[in-house]
Every structure is written in C-alpha cells, then in structure tokens.
Design a protein that fits this description.
Number of strands: 0
Order of helices and strands: HHHHH
Structural class: mainly alpha
Largest sheet: none
Strand content: under 5%
Helix content: 40-55%
Number of helices: 5
Oligomer: single chain
Shape: globular
Length: 71
C-alpha cells in the first residue's frame, strides 16, 4: 500500500519495450495519483483506446520533464 501512495507506477515499456508509446500514455493516465489528471470517465478512456486502435492521435499526453521533476 505504501508503494502505491509513494511511488509512481512503472511504465509498461519498462517491462516490455515493444509497448506502443501512445498505449503506454493511456495506461499511465489511468494510473495518475491526482484524480483531476486521470480520464474524467470510462467513456473517455474507451474513446482514447478507439483512437489508438484506429492509429489516430490520442488525447492523453505524456507528462513533461517539468511535471516529472515536480513529482
């Protein structure tokens, strides 16, 4: 439980380098600690996953270096 509270999740690509960057971004957005940084609904997650499946740009975005540094 302490690890969940204190540490950011491991990026999926760290476990499998073949994981697509956009899919990883979607996954990490789902796991954000701050609720306001997560998707607003399951429907929003589904829409981004559908965009990814159609090879369209996803709305999720990776954290900037500045944001990661703040964490």
């Amino acid at each position: 439980m302490r690890q969940v509270v204190d540490q950011d999740p491991e990026p999926p690509s760290k476990l499998n380098r073949k994981v697509d960057q956009d899919l990883e971004t979607i996954c990490l957005k789902c796991l954000e600690k701050e609720p306001k940084r997560r998707y607003a609904s399951a429907e929003a997650v589904a829409e981004d996953l559908e965009r990814w499946l159609r090879h369209e740009p996803v709305l999720a975005r990776p954290s900037s270096m500045w944001e990661r540094g703040i964490k």
